[in-house]
């Protein structure tokens, strides 16, 4: 009876260990997706730009198969569109779609405010109020992008108080979705008077959450977004009357 061949270090068992070890150093699809979103936010990738699989594979040190997984993840989250024979392209939004996105942002954050008014701890309520007070104090001297970043951070604190990771993820993606209207979005709060009024409204949101008035906080947020959207459309119309 012949002996069974012994497994060597270079055999299947060794190869399996090697594969596990190598894969442990490769970033997962979710992590790569988040990094690409950050690149979009920093204008390294722009709306309408095509994302080439091999270029991304080389950048992140992974296979094209992993990149395909990443691109499908980004498509599901609304950051790219994948077309047959064309591949993946960073989304561009027309005015109608941008309005829809703004309305989704407002609805999600209004929901988070309602939940925060019910669920937030005393410390979380204090953090929301303190951030809103700082926003109101600094608004007159802030740059438009810094002001917008501060309002997004305030929104994240509200999400923390809502105690829902899923809702936080949706809101983060809604705020980070690529926009070919970014210039106009920042122009909304470029004027000092508009920043000051907006900051007062956010402070009112924080006070409503602190005192458990969820419906009031939600209505204030929806009004903030609606005023901003109206102002942006006025700017777009003035720049392009057609």
What is the topology?
Layout: H1 12-23, H2 29-41, E1 50-51, H3 53-60, H4 64-76, E2 80-83, E3 87-90, H5 95-119, H6 122-138, H7 144-162, H8 165-176, H9 182-187, H10 192-210, H11 214-239
Antiparallel strand pairs: 1-3, 2-3
Overview of this structure, please?
This protein has 242 residues and is mainly α. It has two domains: 65 residues, Arc Repressor Mutant, subunit A; 145 residues, GntR ligand-binding domain-like (Four Helix Bundle (Hemerythrin (Met), subunit A)). It contains eleven helices and three strands. The radius of gyration is 23 Å and the shape is globular. About 9% of the residues have low confidence.
- Spatial separation of the terminal alpha carbons: 88 Å
Helix count, DSSP H or I runs of 4 or more residues: 11
Query: How many domains make up the coordinates?
Result: 2
Strand order of the biggest β-sheet? 1-3-2
């Amino acid at each position: 009876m012949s002996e069974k061949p012994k497994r060597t270090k270079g055999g299947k068992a060794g190869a399996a260990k090697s594969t596990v070890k190598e894969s442990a150093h490769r970033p997962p699809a979710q992590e790569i997706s988040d990094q690409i979103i950050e690149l979009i936010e920093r204008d390294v990738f722009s709306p309408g730009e095509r994302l080439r699989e091999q270029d991304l594979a080389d950048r992140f040190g992974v296979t094209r198969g992993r990149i395909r997984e990443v691109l499908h993840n980004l498509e599901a989250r609304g950051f790219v569109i994948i077309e047959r024979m064309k591949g993946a392209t960073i989304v561009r939004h027309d005015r109608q779609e941008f309005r829809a996105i703004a309305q989704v942002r407002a609805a999600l954050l209004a929901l988070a405010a309602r939940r925060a008014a019910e669920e937030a701890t005393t410390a979380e309520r204090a953090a929301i109020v303190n951030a809103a007070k700082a926003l109101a104090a600094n608004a007159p001297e802030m740059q438009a992008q810094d002001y917008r970043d501060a309002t997004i951070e305030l929104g994240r604190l509200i999400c923390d108080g809502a105690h829902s990771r899923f809702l936080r993820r949706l809101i983060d993606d809604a705020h980070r979705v690529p926009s070919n209207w970014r210039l106009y979005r920042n122009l909304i709060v470029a004027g000092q008077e508009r920043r000051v009024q907006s900051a007062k409204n956010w402070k009112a949101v924080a006070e409503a959450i602190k005192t458990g008035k969820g419906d009031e906080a939600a209505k204030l947020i929806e009004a903030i977004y609606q005023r901003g959207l109206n102002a942006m459309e006025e700017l777009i119309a003035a720049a392009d009357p057609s």
